[in-house]
Amino acid sequence: MPYLVIPAYEPDAKLLKLLLELQNYHLFQIIVVNDGSAPQYNTIFQEASKYSTVLTHSQNRGKGRALKTAFFHIRKKGGLDIIITADADGQHTPEDIFRIYNDCQKYTSALIIGTRHFLGSVPLRSRFGNTITKYVFYFATGCFLADTQCGLRGFSSSLLPFLCDIKGEHYEYEMNVLLQGAKQFPIKYIPIETVYINDNASSHFHPVKDAFRIYKEIFKFAGSSLLCFFVDYIGYLLLLLIFSGISVNTRLILANIIARLGSGTLNYLLNRHYVFQDTRRITKTGGAYCLLAFGILTLNTSILLLLRQGGLENVYILKLLTELILFTLSWTVQKHFIFHKHISSS
What we know:
Elements (H helix, E strand, L loop, with lengths): L2 E6 L4 H10 L6 E7 L6 H7 L4 E5 L5 H15 L4 E4 L8 H13 L4 E6 L7 H18 L11 E4 L3 H6 L6 H10 L5 E6 L16 H34 L5 H28 L6 H28 L5 H24 L8
Parallel strand pairs: 1-2, 1-4, 2-3, 5-7
Antiparallel strand pairs: 4-6, 5-6
Helix pairs in contact: 7-8, 8-9, 8-11, 9-10, 10-11
């Protein structure tokens, strides 16, 4: 029997309304996670327990942790089935929840996401936040999703080991799932109704604190890459001066290779320990990174020479153009082939 997971922090009667409406489908095992709500909300969860299994956090731990609490609970039960996640604030209708379920049956290996159309009377913070996020997500993954922030999602329980291992305790967890999953399994989206009640006043999303958590992973990679670019470029400039007595092509090649070796080593260490926080032994990722670095270095030098032969004489601009071309390639390979987590079947 499929599961419906609803994380809830200090919900109101809209949660109970949703649970009552879902009884018409006689389909889901419903799990509601009380994420450390104040005692005055106990009556709502007591009523919710008539229609669902209620799991309780003793204190507020965040939406990501609430979802993972439910996922660990389902894993203990074993078996293979469909899992839907929905919000407790009335934004997701029973009809759309059922539509997500139907698509999960069709696309058994995919993550299905509800997609809202931000037209008409939509709160400014929701419209603006989603617009920014979807383009940042596209920059990071090369995958365009019209709505990256919708909590209505569906997937097979075979993805639970992956989902339980994703970092994040708050709203950033759902973004991290998309960032790490985008190249590991299909992500499909279906249009759903856009529902905002009282200008989305019941949302517990903090526009500054939670937005920072969501974008942090992307910004860390960009910061690491920018720092290493400066190390590489400054080293390249100094080495051009040191090798000023030899031919331009030879000087360009030597300066580029030596500078890239230094910045590449720094980039690997930063990405391994700080950006992707990979805990595996260096032998697991070091060899793969060396192959990537060698490939990037070969391409880097080849592009430098091709641009120069094409008529661009300024060796400083040559370097800048080359780095811009190769940045996206380096991000994609590191994120999805070197430092990505494999989905386990257990």
